[in-house]
Amino acid sequence: MKTRIAFIINPNSGTGKKESLPTMIQEGLDAKKFEPEIVFTQYRGHGTELAKDFAAKGYEVIVAVGGDGTVNEIASSIIHTNSTLGIIPIGSGNGLARHLNIPMNVKKAIQQINESESILMDYGVVNGRPFFCTCGTGFDAYVSTEFAKGTKRGLMRYVEKIITGYFSYKSQNCHLIGDGIDLKAKAFVLTFANASQWGNNAYIAPQASVQDGKMDISIMSNFPIIALPSLALQLFAKTIDKDLFMTTLRSDEITLLREEAGPFHYDGEPYEEGKEVHVKTVADGLRVLVKKRF
Ligand SMILES: Nc1ncnc2c1ncn2[C@@H]1O[C@H](COP(=O)(O)OP(=O)(O)OP(=O)(O)O)[C@@H](O)[C@H]1O
């Protein structure tokens, strides 16, 4: 019996052209193993509805063809089902795909599906919303909000928003409370990491694992501009957790109390969140396709 596999393509992800994707999928997928169905989303949130239908019909694999926002829409519908999430990364950041070592090249990512296996991974929940890569407040939420306001996507738009944002963003007073945790900090960045990076190989939580039943909580305190180049280098060298301006905690459940309600993000999708934010990890709640190990 062939594996029924659905591809849900977000035409709005990243900057590349999407018209040729169905042909590439048909040509690259092993026709002896898979029976594909390929659809495009029509509007924001449509991926969640489509994935729910495919999961209810018993599709074994549902592939998010997009970035972390698309992964979030689709994975949210297949948690705790027998369907497995696949990813073809065509977004701007692709944090979860990079964490899982999924090739950034579309052809290679399709080929990898032919030689993949399903594993269980954790996901997070922030005030009732699932997230799969990271969520947080502070500068990264600010950047996500500014990025979403623009009509253009892609890596260079992120770089532009980061540089202009450094000068206008103000740090927040935060209080984190959890099992054995009681920490007050003025946070420039506060990230709850299920996976290790924001995307684009910016490792805000280099030690985070999607299979340990816990999240890493990365707190970057206020820093002088002179420290910016070394922080940026360490972010990409997977060593930011060693920096003097960083504190890292690990927990399966935590509450954040902050002075003001305001910007927050889940998997890079910006929204407004209240003063009290509860974040927890759900262990082994999602099946995901990764390269076969043996
Ligand atoms: N058909 C559509 N039209 C408009 N927006 C859509 C459509 N389908 C999905 N979306 C929305 O597009 C947004 C961006 O998608 P996605 O996150 O995949 O790409 P990205 O932002 O370029 O990549 P990344 O999240 O990796 O940085 C998401 O908020 C998603 O809900």
UniProtKB/TrEMBL annotation:
Q: Which GO terms describe its cellular component?
A: plasma membrane
Pfam families per record: DAGK_cat, YegS_C
Q: Which residues form a coiled coil?
A: none
| Xref: InterPro entries | ATP-NAD_kinase_N (IPR017438), Diacylglycerol/lipid_kinase (IPR005218), Diacylglycerol_kinase_cat_dom (IPR001206), Lipid_Phosphate_FormReg (IPR050187), NAD/diacylglycerol_kinase_sf (IPR016064), YegS/DAGK_C (IPR045540)
GO MF terms, alphabetically ordered: ATP binding; kinase activity; metal ion binding
Q: Give the cofactors, semicolon-separated.
A: Mg(2+)
Per the UniProt entry, what are the Gene Ontology biological process annotations, in alphabetical order? Answer: phospholipid biosynthetic process
- Describe the location of the DAGKc domain by residue ranges: 1-130
Q: Is-annotated flag, keyword Transcription regulation?
A: no
- Record flagged with keyword Ribonucleoprotein: no
Instruction: Kindly state which keywords UniProt assigns to this record, in alphabetical order.
Output: ATP-binding, Kinase, Lipid biosynthesis, Lipid metabolism, Magnesium, Metal-binding, Nucleotide-binding, Phospholipid biosynthesis, Phospholipid metabolism, Transferase
PROSITE patterns for this protein: DAGK
Q: What is this protein called?
A: Diacylglycerol kinase catalytic region
Q: Which organism is this protein's natural source?
A: Paludibacter propionicigenes (strain DSM 17365 / JCM 13257 / WB4)
